[in-house]
Specification:
Blueprint: H1 12-26, H2 31-40, E1 45-47, H3 48-55, H4 59-71, E2 75-77, E3 86-89, H5 93-105
Antiparallel strand pairs: 1-3, 2-3
Helix pairs in contact: 2-5, 3-4
Length: 106
């Protein structure tokens, strides 16, 4: 998949800058984009394949970030249904801050 695709109407330069800052601040270039995609989801429940399509990155990269968000207490892993592992976003001020950061940094 193309890392330079433009999710969330970000132009390429904005996305590169966002990913660079995400790596410095959060330790991973994908973390802020994945968190933003989770926050933007119309449902509180997401799965890696769905977000991977939205972001244009591999499901394994998305899954790694979802697990980091679970470890941080920001999401929970729901019981597996078939081949799909769903994750639920928990209420936390972090999600509002993600939106503000992405808007400011892009």
């Amino acid at each position: 998949m193309d890392d330079e695709s433009t999710p969330f109407s970000l132009i390429r330069a904005d996305r590169r800058q966002l990913r660079k800052r995400s790596k410095v601040v959060y330790g991973n270039a994908d973390r802020l984009e994945v968190a933003y995609a989770v926050m933007q989801s119309s449902s509180r429940v997401v799965h890696a394949q769905e977000l991977a399509q939205t972001l244009g990155i591999t499901a394994s990269r998305v899954r790694a970030q979802l697990l980091a968000l679970v470890d941080a207490g920001l999401m929970v892993m729901l019981p597996r249904t078939g081949q799909t592992q769903d994750y639920e976003r928990l209420d936390d001020p972090f999600w509002d801050s993600v939106s503000a950061i992405v808007e400011r940094w892009s």
